[in-house]
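re: the backbone from monday

yeah here it is again, tokenized this time
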């Protein structure tokens, strides 16, 4: 895995990644997973255990603490493995429109509502 952090800060020798987001905190845990993935990269680079990170939300000017817990590490690792499988097999899951599509940066490529309409049309004919 290759990571590119927006910012790495240090306090008393302890490093931590900071991820900048333009919007507000959403209801999904993708931001925490991203910070954890950066922490894993930083650990591999430095040999230092990374215990925290932050997400800075520009819209609300707030920094959210992300504890790099064992649970978050496991979720991040599972996500990395799932994405690796997608890349290796080239088999993408069907796009299903949901609340999370609003504001998703992939929306213009993914077109979940259009895919859904095509699917319904194909079922009807
Ligand atoms: S737009 Fe596509 S990638 Fe983004 S959340 Fe919706 S289905 Fe997922």
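seq for it, each position gets an aa:
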């Amino acid at each position: 895995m290759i990571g590119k952090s927006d910012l790495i800060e240090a306090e008393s020798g302890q490093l931590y990644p900071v991820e900048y987001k333009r919007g507000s905190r959403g209801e999904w845990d993708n931001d925490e997973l991203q910070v954890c993935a950066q922490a894993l990269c930083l650990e591999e680079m430095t040999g230092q255990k990374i215990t925290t990170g932050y997400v800075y939300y520009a819209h609300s000017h707030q920094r959210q603490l992300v504890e790099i817990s064992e649970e978050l590490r496991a979720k991040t690792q599972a996500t990395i493995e799932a994405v690796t499988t997608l890349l290796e097999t080239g088999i993408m899951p069907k796009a299903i429109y949901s609340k999370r599509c609003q504001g998703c940066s992939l929306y213009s490529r993914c077109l979940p509502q259009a895919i859904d309409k095509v699917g319904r049309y194909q079922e009807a004919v």
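The first strand starts at residue 7 and ends at 11. Helices lie at 30-46, 70-89, 107-110, 112-124.
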